[in-house]
Amino acid sequence: MSLPFTCSIDNGIAEMILDHPPVNAFDSHGWFAIAREINALGQNDEVRVIIIAAAGRGFCAGVDIKELAADPSRIVAVNRGNYDTFEAIHRNPKPVIMGLHGFVLGGGIGMAGAADILLCADDARFGVPEIDRGAMGGGAHLQRLFPVQKVRYLYFTGEFIDAEEAYRLGAVEKVVPRSGLLEACREIAVKIAAKSPAMVKLAKESLNGIEDGNLEDKYRWEQGFTFEAYTMEDSSESRAAFVEKREAKFDD
User: Fold this and answer.
1) How many angstroms separate the CA atoms of 81 and 61, rounded?
2) Cα 175 to Cα 124: distance, rounded to the nearest angstrom
3) What is the pTM of this model?
4) pLDDT digits (tens, 9 = 90+) for 174-227
5) Average pLDDT, consecutive stretches of 10 residues, N- to C-terminus, the chain (252 residues)
6) CA angle 177, 10, 33 (to 5 degrees)
7) Can you say whether residue 69 is alpha, beta or left, with left for phi > 0 and alpha for psi between -120 and 50 degrees?
8) Is the dihedral of CA 3, 63, 223, 168 positive or negative?
9) Which residues contact 147 (CB under 8 A, 6 or more apart)?
């Protein structure tokens, strides 16, 4: 089975490029593979900074809804793969810089919300359409990006925030043209890679420790509601409608 990403290391900077056409939506096996690689990069003494970006039309469309529509029981494995990936980023001993473009949805929000520094292309769009897919999740990481009421608006409506609004709200460090996104990430990575690795590691651990609450515990709480949602007919109808490209129909 081919990996849904490529990786390289140069001068202390690791680059993971998500590459799973058409939309970088990953099944449970893909999420587990991403988590393993990010953890491995964190333990690699050659690596001082990690950049995660993507090829294709967008950064990440989240989970593979078709896998879940075919077998809803896979939600347990998908939940675990998401959890492991987001934790691998957030708890990684190395700083993680993320370059975002196109759609940043669902699991893409989880990755972005777990990262240390975000840059995005001017075509980036952020959203959590889970409410229209019969699932929950992403609120804990979304709340690491945007204010509480904005998070609730996005969560309840399934609507999107564009790159400029994300910048205005303080979620991203810089908005750049798509063609310059990876280079902008590298410029910041070079600055961090030049610092003491021991000091940077301590800095990240200390910053994680002073955050309000435990991100992983909060996300685990959310995942329980995703599991509950998957026991409901409305959830099944939402997934079926998405796969069949039609409007969902709910009983009154």
Assistant:
1) 15
2) 9
3) 0.90
4) 999 999 999 999 999 999 999 999 999 999 999 999 998 899 999 999 888 877
5) 93 98 94 98 98 97 83 86 96 98 95 98 93 81 95 92 97 98 98 97 96 91 84 83 84 70
6) 80
7) alpha
8) positive
9) 169
Q: Where are the alpha helices (DSSP H) in the chain?
A: 28-43, 65-70, 75-90, 107-114, 139-142, 148-157, 163-168, 181-193, 197-209, 215-229, 233-244
User: Which amino acid type is present at position 113?
Assistant: G
Query: How does DSSP classify residue 63?
Result: E
Q: Of 45, 61, 47, 58, whose CA–CA distance to 7 is shortest?
A: 47
DSSP 103-158: EEETHHHHHHHH-SEEEEETT-EEE-GGGGTT----HHHHTTTS-HHHHHHHHHH-
Residues whose CB falls within 8 Å of the CB of residue 242, separated by 6 or more in sequence, listed in order? 65, 69, 132, 133, 248
Give the separation between CA 59 and CA 219, rounded to whole angstroms: 21
* Distance between CA atoms of residues 165 and 75, nearest Å: 32
